[in-house]
Amino acid sequence: MNDPEIKAIGAISEALNKLSEEQQSNVLLYINARYAGQTVGRSSSAGVPTTGLGAEKFESLGDFFDALDPQTEADRVLAVGYWLQVVQGASDFESFPVNKELKNLGHTVSNITRALDTLISQTPRLVLQVIKTGSSKQSRKKYKITREGIKRVQAALKQDGGDDNGG
Description:
Elements: H1 4-17, H2 21-35, H3 61-68, H4 73-87, E1 93-94, H5 95-104, H6 112-121, E2 127-133, E3 140-145, H7 147-161
Antiparallel strand pairs: 1-3, 2-3
């Protein structure tokens, strides 16, 4: 059989079999972020259901942010990235809109790239860099909250905001 789709799936399977489980997960997250909307529908971010988890009860990013009450710059970046990706349905996000939203909320970040690198370097990773365009230090990068990052925010929502009277 000369089916190009079957050949592509075979090549992907062969490549993934050579990787560790964590590496496989990272590659699949990247591929999903890169091609979501072109060939695969987005039902939820990183395979984690987003309905009924509390975020939809907030009318604005400000309300959501206040309920989470993130204490570190990295956690603030994670919260806004979650809002953009999961609540607003973006497949990925850039640092500029995150930084802009944080400034609007009155929480400036001293170095957005460093905060994102902190989230990327944690084990398990909370954020992935999925695309980099350009070769300079000022190149455009796109990020995606991982399944673990989504779980972290959702756990904080349940802990901090799940028992209030409004829900």
